[in-house]
Amino acid sequence: MIKVSVVLSIHNRSKLFGRALQGYIRQSMPPEEWEVILVDDLSSEQLSFVLEPWIGQVNIRHVRMDHTRHSLFKEMNTNWTEGVPKHWFHTPALSTNLGCALARGEIICLCHPEILHARTNFERAYVRLQREKAYIFGRTFLGTQRHNTWLDEHSWVEVEDWSDLLRRLAAVDRVKWFLPSELYWYTSFLPREAVTSVRGVDFEYLRGVAGEDDDFRERVKRAGWKPVYAEDIMGFHQDHSNEKESHRQRDTQQWQYGLEQNRKTYRSRLQRNAFPAISNENWDWTAKECLVSDTCYWR
C-alpha cells in the first residue's frame, strides 16, 4: 500500500533533483510504501537519465506535461505558435494539480525537486497525519551557492545524522531557514483528501508569479486542515539562483509585473475575506488535458 506520494513539479534542475533523489532511498519508511511523482513541464534536460539508477529500487512515475495544451493558456495566447513569445508566467498550479490527481498515497508530500529530505520525514509526517487533521510544514533550511559547491564535492547521504549535515554546511556558509510564520510548501505534507476537497491549486495564479501556495494553504485551512509548523520534519533547499533561463529571471519587468498581479489577487482575497471554498469551478482542476506521457517505474 502506498502511504505517501511525493509530488514534484519540475522544469530542468536535473542536477539538484538527482542529488535529492539519492536521499529518498534512505527514508526510514520502507520504499514500497511511498512513491515519487515527477511532473515534468517541457524540460529540455533528459530527466530520465537521473531516474535510471533508481529504477527497481523506488516507485517513480515520470509524467510529462505541456502547459500550452491548457485551456487557460490558449485563452491568454490566442493563435500562439512555437517560437512566438508567450503571454504566460509559470505553471506549478497545473503540474501540482496533475501530480496530486495521479497520486496513489493517502498523504501527499508537496515539495520542490531541489529539497533534500531528512531521512525520517515521510514516516513522521504520515504518523502525525493519522492522528491530527492538519497541513504540515516542515522546517526548511535555505542553501547558498557555496553550499552547492560543498554538496558537489561530498556525498551528503553518507552523513547519517541530519544535525551533523547541518553543522558541516554551516561551516561552509551561514545556514538560514524559514520561520514558523513563513509556511511555504517547500517541505510540506497533507492528506490527499484536503487537496481534492478544495479542487487543488487555483488556476487564477497562472496569470502571474508566486502566491499560489499561500492561497492554497488558506483554502485548505478553511476546509478544516489547520497549518502547523513541524520542527522535527526538515528539508534543505538547494540554491538555484544561478539559473539562466529567461522565464526564471526575477529582475525582469515581466517577472515583477507577474509578481504584483498575484500579490494583488491574494491581498484582495485577504482583505475581503473572500477565498473561494473550492477553486477552478470552470476548469478540470486536474489539468489532465496537459498530459503528454506517463511512465511508471514500480518496484
Describe this entry's structure for a reader.
There is one protein chain. Strands 1, 2, 3, 4, 5, 6, 7, 8, 9 and 10 form a 10-stranded mixed sheet that branches. The protein has a single domain (4-297), classed as Alpha-Beta Complex (Spore Coat Polysaccharide Biosynthesis Protein SpsA, Chain A). Strand 1, helix 1 and strand 2 form a beta-alpha-beta unit. Helices cover 34% and strands 22% of the residues. With 299 residues, the chain is an alpha/beta fold.
Give the helices and strands, then pairings.
Blueprint: E1 4-10, H1 14-24, E2 34-41, H2 47-51, E3 59-65, H3 71-76, H4 92-102, E4 107-111, E5 115-117, H5 121-131, E6 134-142, H6 145-153, H7 162-172, E7 176-177, E8 187-191, H8 192-197, H9 212-222, E9 226-237, H10 253-272, E10 291-297
Overall mean pLDDT stands at 95
If you consult CATH, what is the topology?
Spore Coat Polysaccharide Biosynthesis Protein SpsA, Chain A
Total helical segments: 10
Which CATH architecture would you pick? Alpha-Beta Complex
The CATH superfamily appears as Spore Coat Polysaccharide Biosynthesis Protein SpsA, Chain A
Biggest sheet record = 10 strands, mixed
Q: Please count the beta strands (DSSP E, at least 2 residues each).
A: 10
- The SS-based structural class is alpha/beta
